[in-house]
Amino acid sequence: MNHALVVNSNDNVANALDDIPAGEQFAFSVGKDSYTLTAIDNIKFGFKVAIKKIQKGEQIIKYGCVIGVASQDIEPGQSVHIHNVEGTRGRGDKKGD
């Protein structure tokens, strides 16, 4: 089975510790509790995967810190990356940043 790492109990994403093919299960722990989910997308090693439903506009939390905001609804097991996350800091490519 593939694995993912959750660092902080407040995180809503995990980091893939393996390449996780779409349709495959992966395991992760939050504190002493262990869970399994099925990957919706292909998740590359080191990339983020949602471990709970994240609504559009909700904060993305990794390592206990806000790293962005969901630009669309994100399902558990879905890849979390620039296609569905908007940064909360200036990007430099938008007027006014």
Automatic annotation (TrEMBL):
Gene Ontology biological process terms, A to Z: D-galacturonate catabolic process
Xref: Pfam families: SAF
Compositionally biased intervals (Basic and acidic residues): 83-97
Keywords (A to Z) from UniProt: Lyase
Matching SMART domains: SAF
GO molecular function, a single term: lyase activity
Domain SAF positions: 11-86
Disordered: annotated segments: 78-97
This protein's name: SAF domain protein
